[in-house]
Amino acid sequence: MDKLRVSLLGSTGMVGQKMVRLLSSHPFIELAKVSASPNKVGKKYKEAVKWIEEGEIPEAAQDLTVVSTSPEDHRDVDVVLSALPNELAEDVELKLVREGITVVSNSSPFRMDPEIPLINPEINWEHLRLLETQRQKRGWKGLMVKNPNCTAAILSMPLKPLLKYGLNKLVITTLQAVSGAGYNGLPFMSIGNNVIPYIKGEEDKIPKESGKMLGELQGDKIAYVKLDAVVTATRVPVKVGHMGVVTALFNSPVNAEEVRKELMNFGAFPQDRNLPTAPKHPIRVLEGEDRPQPEIDVKAEGGMAVSVGRIRQEGDSIRFVVLGDNLVRGAAGITILTLEVMRELGYI
Amino acid sequence: MDKLRVSLLGSTGMVGQKMVRLLSSHPFIELAKVSASPNKVGKKYKEAVKWIEEGEIPEAAQDLTVVSTSPEDHRDVDVVLSALPNELAEDVELKLVREGITVVSNSSPFRMDPEIPLINPEINWEHLRLLETQRQKRGWKGLMVKNPNCTAAILSMPLKPLLKYGLNKLVITTLQAVSGAGYNGLPFMSIGNNVIPYIKGEEDKIPKESGKMLGELQGDKIAYVKLDAVVTATRVPVKVGHMGVVTALFNSPVNAEEVRKELMNFGAFPQDRNLPTAPKHPIRVLEGEDRPQPEIDVKAEGGMAVSVGRIRQEGDSIRFVVLGDNLVRGAAGITILTLEVMRELGYI
Amino acid sequence: MDKLRVSLLGSTGMVGQKMVRLLSSHPFIELAKVSASPNKVGKKYKEAVKWIEEGEIPEAAQDLTVVSTSPEDHRDVDVVLSALPNELAEDVELKLVREGITVVSNSSPFRMDPEIPLINPEINWEHLRLLETQRQKRGWKGLMVKNPNCTAAILSMPLKPLLKYGLNKLVITTLQAVSGAGYNGLPFMSIGNNVIPYIKGEEDKIPKESGKMLGELQGDKIAYVKLDAVVTATRVPVKVGHMGVVTALFNSPVNAEEVRKELMNFGAFPQDRNLPTAPKHPIRVLEGEDRPQPEIDVKAEGGMAVSVGRIRQEGDSIRFVVLGDNLVRGAAGITILTLEVMRELGYI
Amino acid sequence: MDKLRVSLLGSTGMVGQKMVRLLSSHPFIELAKVSASPNKVGKKYKEAVKWIEEGEIPEAAQDLTVVSTSPEDHRDVDVVLSALPNELAEDVELKLVREGITVVSNSSPFRMDPEIPLINPEINWEHLRLLETQRQKRGWKGLMVKNPNCTAAILSMPLKPLLKYGLNKLVITTLQAVSGAGYNGLPFMSIGNNVIPYIKGEEDKIPKESGKMLGELQGDKIAYVKLDAVVTATRVPVKVGHMGVVTALFNSPVNAEEVRKELMNFGAFPQDRNLPTAPKHPIRVLEGEDRPQPEIDVKAEGGMAVSVGRIRQEGDSIRFVVLGDNLVRGAAGITILTLEVMRELGYI
């Protein structure tokens, strides 16, 4: 089997570096090109990057020459993965897709576009069918696939199996890691020994993106789920790992033990096909009363599983705490897994 | 006016030291005696304490000789303040009260006792009237007054003015500081760069103690308010300042602007009488969308005011974030203010 | 006595805010004007600043209108204090001085200029006499006085009384707080849970600036002390407080007890005249074997005293640990104290 | 080749857990038994341990039954590894050795005993020959081998290749991680946002233990190197990674470039024999001016390599910064590597 050759936009950023590391040992995806900002173009990757990932820069990436984001620099790859900053992504990605290049992207523009699939693989891999509609209606020569906001990626996991119980209202408080704001996103002086109870834009994205992902594909449209969710997003002095404290109100009592089993047994196409980046158990259910914790649980299954603990029932409500790796399940890993699914389904 | 002479149990602990500092400049309370564990008895305070409060040990306290917790060591003071650890407090405090000594205490035993007032001064100073019942029914020669759990002290403040709108349900997530577990409560290795989503005992205490404090004194009994509250208590790597993210569901829509005004104008007996430890505004309402924050807001009004921000309405719910100093409003300061109220009302 | 009217450049930065707070209760210096970057000019201070100092913005400053750095905006004050970033300071300060305005500045340009006094008041207040030379030789209409780098300000304090013993060589490791790099200087992701063993420019400045400050004024020149010092400057995840671990090698053994006394008794003109910002004891000598510590000692005497501990002798070497508040003794406070000395000596 | 069967004392502690994880994938050492404190004896390992290492408890260890420290519980293993707390180690280890069991131990008692080898494998593997003397003179039936203090293990690495240049004096400041004090060693309240410039016992151990390890084995004795070293040991709020800032004074100038090469090329018996836990390059030399850093460099070669940066020469001195993983090179890994060497040399 030939390897998929990919190029990576935003390869020197924090999420980009994570992808470089994850791809370095991938069985069938080969990192063929790396792209970064104009002042780095032409340099070798090892000279262009200020490496902050654990371990050394993977050998295969060290001597890649940094290219631009222009389509001409990406014609000879199978797919472009994008870890671009949101403010740059819109123009660059659109231009690539129009020129016939397929893009799988982590950035926020177009996420809510009704003809662009927003994929969290275990939840809505079937939405990739939307690509056919996209091709017909948009007249793009390439395909565009998006991944969700990091917190939505994590929170939507346990919501999926709960949907069928008649979810009525969600009250969510998030405790999000500093890396979610980017490597330079928050100064030590502002977040060290502190909590900032607000993250711009985040509180809206979570229910909106989750509502799209959890929707059913009906014909050539997604029937969005309207989540009556209130979210308060806070930033805590933790490096990696977004936590959500979730109170789910249902129309009638739901059994906590049943929920526990549903979550533990949750799995989908990526697990069925045993895809290389798929976690065996996308949702780990923890019994310890003081779990999940970022320092202990965030790296479970290489950061691709989310951990759920403290499942409790009171009357019509179910409460739990969920934790996930915002850089892997929430960003670099989800993109790679999406690409694996696309290939398995023949979109690439 | 003669000064009130007090002795202080648990004087070398973190809350004890805070009291020593607060009392050092008090206009009419004099720290006459300090008590600590048996191995420190007989030493000078400055030799017995490992001082961690800011600044030097107050001069008046430095050379006090540490005494035991036995009643004979506290006969010649007007009141005993207690910052004892919970596990020691029950026996010691009971013995003192039986021997005719009045105790105002921060420790947890007896807090839910129906004949012992649990005082957060601005909220339920009137509950001190219960002391008359206590005297009659218990036959103690002294009086016993309790202060609430530190988180309950902070959260109950904004709940008081909201009660009248017909509070239906509360969903609360707390982000609590490490000092709430005591100076040695949590190792750096466990809470540094981490969140622990569980605090033993805390989730029950908050609604129970708040329900008692918010209740009305009817005859010689408090009619507890039954709060339908679910609390998830988390520990975050912050030294001082407990935060609560509160979603309050009402029976009908409540106007956020009105709530804002109610909170801003909140005040009671301690403010009316201008007591020395009373904050001018017990509740600060902040407009900045990213406030309150422990590093900026916790010391407002010397730590005696709580700060409320992000007040928002959606349908029948009001949401907000509240922050308070767990060592001052939540412990040392609330005890001193309680004593000030007791004296103003003639109980001492 | 008329108050000195000052204006403050860089008033919205971290050091600027510290000066605003310190000046708000000053007995004879009045903050008359605040200046900040062009996009803030014309706004009220309270709207221009993102206040991070403890407590509220001082009332007297809240409604000051932000002015530019141009000389015409500062003609009616007695002195301009500068907390400008280094890269902006050179041009702005020079223009002001040429136009007849006296500037006392924290910024780095001109610090090593032989005709500009570099003042750490207790150490070299006498260097202010250099202003007469400055006036003659430079032909400036105003005067320019500089304060040292924050670490040099702290380290030079205990070196002064040691000089006379025949200092041969200094080996210094610093553990510096994050605030020394400015509020936005270091991202949480880079310094949280980390040590960075390098601070650009710092290792040279410390011996050079100290050598100038410790020099004797001979006629109209300072005879710089050539310190044979090697410095390794590290950044640690601490918000405020620069620590230096100092090994001083002498030509012959020096008695530790004698050093202890010299340091404890150290004082100079600011102490003699009891100037308002002068600490009573510029050097606190601590006996506890695990002191000084930033969390306990940095605020001693309002941040104007440095703390020295662990004084030990081995053969010809004396070792100790010194700690100081990099924002007060190292920046905002040293500038105000310098101004107090200048006024006392009649330079203003 | 048969596997070596080992039992592990102190298996539930932080270092013990690290050993359990490292041994779980070892090619020829099998963890056969785990021992812990009396109240855990009889439980399964997975029930006795509060697992804090990354990932799940290794399967092979989960169901091991915890045994006591008594010799009868360790008769059927080839070696006992000890990660016991210092205060318990002396009696337990002595008893085991007397009863014929070979012990390789991390604990501090007996480290300076002239007949007990203190092994940092790359530095002094040849000292294992001392075991023959030990056997003759002590009359123990088993053998006792010690590993050094974690900081001495790290610092001694770069000192070894420097010795030959005529080391005259060492001035060392350490910045040590909190894990060095044990998992419960330091409360968050004391070390968070702080530096504690003192670690009990540490400053003496470093030169003493290094002097023993760096000594030459002459006949049946080690000729200790007398290091004229002054050490100031500080604790910084970092979880893992001890750093040393080293100034080495020589009798004559030493070329920095030559030192760099010596360090880079350093290697010994463990590298020659390609032992499984041996790092390829025991000393990594880093070029970046702001390296090494705990967050980036501590896990190099699985934590078994130390990282050296900022090598500089001034006159007769060479300065550098060294960093190592205190839990792997400084504790769990060094013990396992020592055992590998012992087996390779036929001592087991």
TrEMBL record, chains A, B, C, D:
Tell me which residues make up the Semialdehyde dehydrogenase NAD-binding domain.
Answer: 5-131
| Keyword line | NADP, Oxidoreductase
User: InterPro entries, alphabetically?
Assistant: ASADH-related, Asp_semi-ald_DH_pep-lack, NAD(P)-bd_dom_sf, Semialdehyde_DH_NAD-bd, Semialdhyde_DH_dimer_dom
* Superkingdom of this protein's organism: Archaea
Pfam families linked to this entry: Semialdhyde_dh (PF01118), Semialdhyde_dhC (PF02774)
One record GO biological process: threonine biosynthetic process
Catalytic-site annotation from UniProt:
150, 242
Per its UniProt record, what CDD domains does this chain match? ASADH_C_arch_fung_like, ScASADH_like_N
Q: Which GO terms describe its molecular function?
A: aspartate-semialdehyde dehydrogenase activity; NAD binding; NADP binding; protein dimerization activity
Q: Which family does it belong to?
A: Belongs to the aspartate-semialdehyde dehydrogenase family.
Q: What is this protein called?
A: Aspartate-semialdehyde dehydrogenase
